[in-house]
Amino acid sequence: MADDTSKFDVSYVAYLARMHLTDAEKENISAQLNDILAYVAKLNELDVSQVEPTAHATPLSNVLRKDEVQPSIDRDKILKNAPEQARDLFIVPKIVE
Amino acid sequence: MSLHALTIHELREKLRGGDVSAREATQALLDRIQAVDGKLKAYLWLNAEDALAQADAIDRSGIAKNGKLLGGVPIAIKDVINVDGQPCTCASKILKRHTSVYDAFVVQRLREAGAILLGRTNMDEFAMGSSTENSSWGVTRNPWDLERIPGGSSGGSAAAVAADEAFAALGSDTGGSIRQPAALCGCVGLKPTYGRVSRYGLVAFASSLDQIGPFTKDVADSALMLRVLAGHDRCDSTSVPQSVPDYTATLGQGVKGLRIGLPKEYFIDGMDREVDAAVRAAIKKLQDLGAEVVAISLPHTDYAVAVYYLIATAEASANLARFDGVRYGARVVGEDVIDMYGKTRGAGFGPEVKRRIILGTYALSAGYYDAYYLRAQKVRTLIRQDFEKAFENCDVIVTPTSPEVAFRIGEKTDDPLKMYLSDIFTISVNLAGICGVSLPCGFTKSPRLPIGLQVLGKPFDEETVLRVAHMYEQATEWRKQRPSL
């Protein structure tokens, strides 16, 4: 898998992550991630064809509860942390034309 | 002895007897913080008036005297756990002005037990780091040597407890973030089994690995804190509905006949010689106390760091998607909404968080998912099975907590991989979901720096882990050592 690191396109990945990076950051992160990806390539040494993946370590699955109305957090309190808000709503840039 | 230097169980006796009030206990810590935190910078936020008001309410109610587990005891909280009405920044610029709007489950538990929510401790931004150098608000210093790091990511909590600036503190542990700083600062740090303590109200880093736990001055306090924190919570679907034993009741049962596993993969070349010697001496001590030592193997240990940095970053890249400048946190205005997301996140996150989001996004991206993330999850299974097999032949596993003692500020900041490798002895525990504690087992000679012993247990067997740790602690004098500040 690490054979592909030369193709590592930091600009594209930063776009996927919706995170602007400066040119200096891109250069720095690319170099460091190439080292890290070369390191994690050691996982290729193992044959995992017969191994099930572990997503988490609890014995629980499909945890259900009754769908009951519970008290929630006060709306005004939540809106106080919003970068921009008005009339009980979050204000965001226009999304649809 | 000064009030601030007491353990929780010592303080409780005084509170219950009426010799000390909650206000006096709180004031003693505030004075201590005033005296030493200028040097250490363990706290990010503290409101003396608010803390004293909480203490007065407890004094008026009389709950410090009627046996509540933490009645009148002030506790410090890592800046990643929500306390209603207090700031919660995760040491990140993106949450600079954020105020929590609810209590985390563990905070509800602390309040019910009569604790005072004293203040917020420093950490690596979003708990990503091993040195607290990734905090956006400046580095915390190690109380034993101010030129060195306290460990991380819960470095502020560890330093506060080690320097008697808190009777106990909460931290979170995703790959060692409680145990490693506890080792490097010389206090006791417990990572409970995954699912033992609710994560509701903990700002998520890697949801399948994160767990909240306490920093304390001794093992008895760790048991007491776990009794308060543990238990099922309907708000966390991964919290396990299993009864909570009285961890304090079984502490004194000794280690006679217990089998202690020593994994050969954890006693490696390149480990600090003094760390190696201190841990071997501790094992000898446990043998003298009646424990039996068995050689075990955890054959996939060498792959743990690689697995961890794929799984943890993948989960982090998804969890941190919520910081987009819409509902909370800072916003940087852009040309359109996509540009706003990009600018907000580009300006709000620090270098390590960016690095991990990029790595995690890459590991999950089309064409690479199977090669990186899925493969890492499969190797995670092998690591989990290593522990299952090992625990067939032993009751606990004993290892060093960290291969080295506290390093110098700036020593590893330019080399992320080197920083990641300082977690090699703690990371597998989170991948396997088991429990573990770190406690002091000695000091290096010059400079004099604490060394940590790690005791690991089967899932939900914190009782045995704490019992072994307590037996060792009581048979040695390390817990009485304090840094001079």
State the gist of this model.
The complex is a heterodimer of chains A (97) and B (485). Chain A is mostly helical.
Write the layout of secondary structure elements.
The complex is a heterodimer of chains A (97) and B (485).
Chain A: H1 10-16, H2 23-40, H3 75-80, E1 85-86, E2 89-90
Antiparallel strand pairs in A: 1-2
Chain B: H1 8-17, H2 22-40, E1 43-46, H3 48-61, E2 74-78, H4 105-112, E3 116-121, H5 155-162, E4 168-172, H6 179-185, E5 188-191, E6 212-216, H7 219-229, E7 259-263, H8 273-288, E8 292-296, H9 304-319, H10 337-348, H11 351-364, H12 370-390, E9 396-400, H13 416-421, H14 427-432, E10 435-443, E11 450-457, H15 462-475
Parallel strand pairs in B: 2-3, 2-4, 7-8, 7-9
Antiparallel strand pairs in B: 1-3, 4-6, 5-6, 5-10, 9-11, 10-11
Helix pairs in contact in B: 2-3, 5-6, 7-15, 9-11, 9-12
Report on the structure:
The complex is a heterodimer of chains A (97) and B (485). Chain A has a domain at 1-47: Histone, subunit A. Chain A has three helices and two strands; from the N terminus they run H-H-H-E-E. Chain A has helices at 10-16, 23-40, 75-80; strands at 85-86, 89-90. Chain A has a two-stranded antiparallel ribbon with strand order 1-2. The longest helix of chain A is centred in the first third of the chain and has 18 residues, at 23-40. Chain A is flat and about 55 Å long. Chain A starts with 9 loop residues before the first helix and ends in a 7-residue tail after the last strand. Chain B has 485 residues and is an alpha/beta fold. Chain B has a domain at 3-254: Amidase signature (AS) domain (Amidase signature (AS) enzymes, Alpha-Beta Complex), CATH 3.90.1300. Chain B has helices at residues 8-17, 22-40, 48-61, 105-112, 155-162, 179-185, 219-229, 273-288, 304-319, 337-348, 351-364, 370-390, 416-421, 427-432, 462-475, and strands spanning 43-46, 74-78, 116-121, 168-172, 188-191, 212-216, 259-263, 292-296, 396-400, 435-443, 450-457. An eleven-stranded mixed β-sheet of chain B has the order 1-3-2-4-6-5-10-11-9-7-8, sandwiched between helices. In chain B, helix 7 (219-229) runs antiparallel to helix 15 (462-475) and helix 9 packs across helix 11. Chains A and B meet through helix 1, helix 2 and helix 3 of A and helix 9, helix 10, helix 11, helix 12 and helix 13 of B.
